[in-house]
Amino acid sequence: MPANILIVEDTESLSLLYQSYLIPTGLNTFVAGTGQAALDYLSNNQPDLIILDIMLPDMSGMDILAQLPNKNRPDVIVLTAHASKELAVEAIRHGAIDFLEKPIDAERFRITVNNGLKLKTLSKKVEEYQSTFENGRFCQLIGKSALMQNVYQIISNAASSKATVFITGESGTGKELCAKAVHECSDRKQAPFVALNCAAIPKDLIESEIFGHVKGAFTGATSNREGAAGQADGGTLFLDELCEMDLGLQSKLLRFIQTGTFQKVGSETLQSVNVRFVCATNRDPWLEVQEGRFREDLYYRLYVIPIQLPPLRDRGEDVVQIADAMFARIAKEEGKTFVKLTDNAKQKLLSYDWPGNVRQLENMIRNTLVMNHSDIIDSNMFPAFPISQNKNSSGSQETEQTSYFSNKIISPEQSDSFPAISSESAHPIKSHLDIRPMWIVEKEYIEQAIDICGNNIPKAAAMLELSPSTIYRKMKTWEE
């Protein structure tokens, strides 16, 4: 839609001249001959840009600048026949983005207006992204943690590109929601988003599911069928669990990605489509290449913009924000009422490592809502949480001490018992006066480990055989 430009100029011949300058741009222009006429227009309309003459018959252009609202403020380019450094500085101080001296060259005028509109568009995008990041929601993704903020930024940067996005992360971390966010932030958002789970389709049917088939191509092919590639034309094709794909089909997929063309099963006709590829796997794709289960040339073709989704256990307070949103949504689906989580419930959510990530959290929430009839959710309403055996960053297993959480709240010191501390690092105990609280000993040991690892908490967590979320929770309790 063309931008709206308000021209505030008391000389009619000049206002018509400025309008004529902008005719080739296709912009919508409106003219106000006095300051009051401009204010009247602004009270009912919101132009994208104002071209403002400083010297008006009834008031100064500076007065108009001073009365513009701070919220949704239109950008202003000031015009004057009485240019001076002092006047320019004053105009900029009141919010003008540029300053032109009369008489004005047509090309210079158009360039200045175009730059002003570009700046306005950029400012809006920045505000939208900042607002989105601050409230912890990005499309259907939820979370304010620094790890998720980084994911949002990558999606924002990559969305407008045609480059393939490769999403990795544990099962249940929300890889399909991430893929949808890439699609929704792109200029393809009005076109189809087609998702295909390569692990859920039998090996002998997946080629047909991707490329489609013609009637009679195989037993049961009673009619022509459009595959995911054809359905996604103009939009985004999401291939989930890509590393499960058969090696033979990987070569056909590579050719499709390289040429944008494919053949339906049983057809000799090439079809051409315009598709943006987004892929995902819960495996290490490079390890799959080394093990011979994934083609190296396909890896290099697809692994252009990687996005690593963090596990829920490393996202801190995000688990509470996600739980709040899910309780509200699922309560509506189940015909229940949800008001809030108690502090005990929040603490229990934070104290568990969620080996099944967001998917496990969602199932737990549905169970809680179905089995209870209170609109205020407390920790004793949660079902028993199974043992978590999560891999930390060093690849070893960190195992909880109990096979199930009881309905009693477990403190971080109880649920995340720290590994035995060697006598070399601990102060020797010679009498009861030397005995110190365990949390102080743990605190000193963890702080020493973090210091030795150069303040790299994930690295320190790996060395200590703990998850980073455990250390973050302990650090939070030390501050309280």
TrEMBL record:
Keywords per UniProt: ATP-binding, DNA-binding, Nucleotide-binding, Phosphoprotein, Transcription, Transcription regulation
Check the record and name the PROSITE patterns matching this protein. Answer: RESPONSE_REGULATORY, SIGMA54_INTERACT_2, SIGMA54_INTERACT_3, SIGMA54_INTERACT_4
Positions where 4-aspartylphosphate occurs in the chain? 53
Q: Specify the domain of life of the species encoding this protein.
A: Bacteria
Ranges where the Response regulatory domain occurs:
4-117
* GO molecular function annotations of the record: ATP binding; sequence-specific DNA binding
**GO BP field:** phosphorelay signal transduction system; regulation of DNA-templated transcription
InterPro entries in UniProt: AAA+_ATPase (IPR003593), AAA_lid_NorR (IPR058031), CheY-like_superfamily (IPR011006), Homeodomain-like_sf (IPR009057), HTH_Fis (IPR002197), P-loop_NTPase (IPR027417), Sig_transdc_resp-reg_receiver (IPR001789), Sigma_54_int (IPR002078)
The keyword Transferase is assigned to this record: no
Residue ranges of every copy of the Sigma-54 factor interaction domain listed in the record: 141-370
Name the UniProt record assigns to this protein: Repressor protein luxO
User: Which taxonomic lineage does the organism of this UniProt entry have?
Assistant: Bacteria, Pseudomonadati, Pseudomonadota, Gammaproteobacteria, Alteromonadales
